[in-house]
Amino acid sequence: GVEPLDALPRREREQFAKFDAMVHAWRASGAFQVPMGDVRIDALDRSLQQKLVTLDSQSAAAWMSSLGFNSPALRWWVEYGTRDDYGASLSQASAWSAVHYFAARDAEEQGPLTWPEGNHWIAKQLAARAGARVVTDAPAYQVQRRGSKWLVRTPRMDVLCEAVIWAAPLFVMPRVIAGVEVPVATEYAPWVVANITLDRWPSERGAPPAWDNVIYGSQSLGYVVATHQQLGQPGPASVWTWYHAVVDRASVDGRKWLRDTEWTWWRDHILADLGRAHPDIGDAVTRIDVRRWGHAMARPGPGVLERAARLGSWTAGTGLFVAHADLSGFSLFEEAQWHGVRAADRAGALLGRG
User: In whole angstroms, what is the distance from residue 282 CA to residue 285 CA?
Assistant: First the structure.
C-alpha cells in the first residue's frame, strides 16, 4: 500500500494500527464487497445493519474525528482512497464509503489487472465478439415509446426494439428519454486527466519506476506510467497519465472552475506537482494533453446506501433496463459490470432468451 509509516511518531503509528484493526473487523463482517450487489444488506444481522446506517449518516471526516483519528498522515491516506475511488474529500464522502474503500478489498492484493491500452483492451475484445452487431458513430439522442416497443433515434439510423439497456450516467437519462424521472439525485465529481509525453525518463528520488505512483501530500492522485506494462526492454520515451479530482469546492463550482481554467495554468500546475518527485521533469516533457471531465464519477456522500436502495427498487419503464455504476452510488468498474450483467439478463428474459 501507500501507508507513509516510516518516521511517524508512535502516536500516529498507533492510530494506523487502530484503523487497520477496524478495517479488518469490517472486512470479516461480510458487509463490504465489490461489487456491492453481492451483498444483501437487509439480510445482515440487525445490529450490523444499524452500524452501517450510522456510518452512512455522517461524513468520513466527522466519523474519523469522533474516533480520535487526528493523525495528518492517516487522514491523508484515507482521503487519498476517497479521492481515488470517489472523487471526494473526507468531508464530502460518507463514512461508509471510506470504510468500503478499504474493507471491500483483500488485505493482500495480488497486483493490478490491467493492459497497456487500459480498459480499451476489454472494449476491443467485446467488440470482436459482437462483430457486425456493433454500430459505431451512432449516439442515441432520443429514445421514445412507440406502442409496445421503443424507438431509438441516432444520426445514422432509427432502431425499433422491444428492449433498451441504458448504460449512460443517470443525469443524462431524462434528457434523452422523455417522461423518465430518476428517483434520486446523484452528485458528480469533476476531474482532470492529463497525458504527459516524455522523450526521456526524468531523475528519480528514492524509488525505482513503478506503474502507479503517488506523491505524499499532493492534491493530485499521482500518475500512472502508461508504458510500464509493455513487454520487452523499455525505451527512453514514455507517456504518463496524471489524475486530479477536484475536491476543494462544490461540484457545480468545480465544473465552472474547470471551464474557466486555461491550459497554461494546468501545464504549470502539473509540472510543479511532478517536480516534487522529479526535479528535472520540465526538461523531459514534450507535450501535455489536458482533459476536463465535469461529471467524471458519482460521489457517494452521506446517505448513499439509502439512495442506492431506492434506485435498486426503481423500474424505469417496461422494456427499459438501466446498467450503470450510478445505481450503486459510486463509479467502480465492478459495479458497472454487475449492473450490466443484471440488465442483460432481464432484457434477455423479456425477449425469451434468458
Answer: 6
